[in-house]
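Annual report, structural modelling task.

Input specification for the NDP complex:
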Amino acid sequence: MMLRSEIKAVEQMYINGSWVTAIGEATRKVVNPANNEVIAIVTEGDVEDAALAIKAARDAFDQGVWPDMHARDRANLLNKIADRLEERVAEFARLETLNCGKPLREAEYDITDAVNQFRYYAGLTTKPHGVTYDVPDQIQAMVVREPIGVVSQIIPWNYPIVMAAQKIAPAIAAGCTVVIKPAETTPLTLIRLFEIIDEVGCPPGVLNLVMGSGATVGHEMARSPLVDKVAFTGGTETGIKIMKTAAETIKKVGLELGGKSPNIVFADADFETAVDYALFGIFANQGQVCSAGSRLLLEESLVEKFIPEIVRRAKLIEVGPGLVETSEMGPLISERQMQRVLEYVEIGKAEGATLLCGGYRIMDNGLEHGNFVAPTIFGDTTPEMRIVQEEIFGPVLAIQTFRDEAEAIALANGTKYGLAGAVFTSDGAKAQRVIRKLRAGITWINAYHPTFNEAPWGGYKQSGIGRELGTYGFEEYLETKQINISLHTQPSGWFRN
Ligand code: NDP
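The model returned the following structure:
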């Protein structure tokens, strides 16, 4: 654990190529969710700081060296960031765990994933973009792709480094300039990433880091007319606010929002695999995953065997500080989030659902100072219950049951969300039929959670707008311009004189 004496001076923001403290000199304490002790003090920006960063990004996009840099230069920059980050995986992973609570092996996976994202987009930067058309009237018609401009990127606290890489890498590959804001609770790995960005010689103003609250700094990033696009990952309520604010200047908006994703298990599924992924689907990262399989849909004939087994296995999950090697599930990100989750447990009970396990804050074995909640499962739910409809964003699973394929599909699609979903069955045709009917952007057959940087990430319905990752995520940072070149220079003759 980090000792108070290890806390360095106030951690700064990175604006226009320099480390700076907030104009108002405010600070914020950052805590370790495993014991709520202070692990860092960071400078706390406000609207004026955000405005400075946005101006720097605007200037860097419109003038200076960046607009003249080629795809190869941008690819080099991304590769250098990837190389430096890869050298520091262990250090970044420890810091991510310290700040977010997630078990160390999950954090190690996250940092490696971020390295891969930088590499993937470095590769994509130099690949061909654009097309030509065979058109009449002695015209050569072509389409070129250009960077969208200045981009605001607002990221959440559940995957800080992954979310940062997922947004920064395609934006830089496209030639955009960036202002990025971490969640106020989890800025630490992003600050270290900016040390790397500083070391590799990124031109001033191209990548800027601002810290501060969503209501002030985040709002300005969505509002400023100098910004061309805002890319956001977080809760749906905040996404709605950002979209409304951005609408004033018709900004492009990318939203990666919440989910209440169905995990459908038919009676003919491989039992062990389905139980294993049902647990992984909801309890990985303490359930603080937008694509979590937070609704388990069981075929009725399976209920008697499946429920006792998943409850037994959930009770065996070792909950503890992420830095302890044996911990399989860590603390929730904040006391606020823990209270929110525990409130949902009370709502579930009051609605008449049966609490099958968990549902409480863990107050023994030295965990009483952290935000630890036991793996929680509810049975006997009905579709209209709030614990079935609303994103809880914690280790809470709601079980629903179905009689046949049609009912499974209807229940699966029966929320306002459409981010992810899975089906477990040994019938290949049935698996395809069900997946094709799911109104969701990220799906699995006989697995839950594995996704890859090559493939698009995003949701249907109120789970978001646009896609991240892969070539689809690159597209989101590009404008499209048609160029028509006359091959025969002469007047049009449209008007008589
Ligand atoms: P938010 O969605 O509010 O936070 C995500 C990011 O948005 C943070 O950087 C936050 O800043 C910023 N933000 C907040 N308000 C605004 C605003 N008005 N304008 C611009 N940016 C803003 O999540 P919360 O932490 O409040 O969590 C609430 C719920 O949201 C969770 O319980 C969960 O259900 C959902 N959530 C979903 C996530 C997902 O990936 N789907 C991720 C995180 C949360 P700041 O740090 O200052 O709040």
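The longest helix spans residues 104-125.
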